[in-house]
Design goal:
Elements (H helix, E strand, L loop, with lengths): L2 E6 L5 E6 L4 H6 L17 H16 L6 E3 L5 E3 L5 E7 L2 E7 L5 E5 L4 H4 L6 H8 L3 H19 L10 E3 L9 E8 L2 E12 L2 E6 L4
Antiparallel strand pairs: 1-2, 2-6, 3-4, 5-6, 7-11, 8-9, 9-10, 10-11
Helix pairs in contact: 4-5
Length: about 210
Amino acid sequence: MPLLHQRILSQTQILGIWQLTESEDELLAQHTWLPEFATIPPSLTHPQRRAQWLATRVLLAELHQREEINYDENGKPFLGITNKHLSISHSNNLVALIIDTKPVGIDIEHISPKIERIARKFMQPSEIADAMREDTVRKMYVYWCVKEALYKVNGDKGVSLLQNIAVEPFSIYTDAELTAHVRFKTYHLTRKLRFEQFGEFMLAYTVTES
């Protein structure tokens, strides 16, 4: 399937979502541009992961960024030619990607009641109590997506969603934007993020910095 969703979020920020229905061969056929970038890393052996890797690059091209995706020492992706930042997320058959001129993060997750069983692994008791006040499952997914998206801004693998990322209280019914913080060693970061339900998925991404 072609590009499922595309949105210009600001003068510098663009979001795209791809619904992955193609086989690996079908995706490779769309790599007529810069074919050297279509070499899947040998470490990727699972068919779904290989297809997601290819779909990410096809989606990037659809967003008019025909560049190779590079990775820094923390595994954080970036575009080497334009020096733009990007963030990538996969869930089931959806691939989400966001591009900006400054550090950015995105996460998309399929909504399922199972999140209540694992909430204590990434949410503080006060955050769980906040989620219990309204539409618990959906709100827990907002917490999860927001924390994952903010984690990706810095990309330091030592950061814990539970211990180092805090989300300020919000309402899932009246808010579309919230504030979250990362505190890790001497590193402190505060960013605003937006969230929304996208069909059966929850989506969150960082707002462009002014």
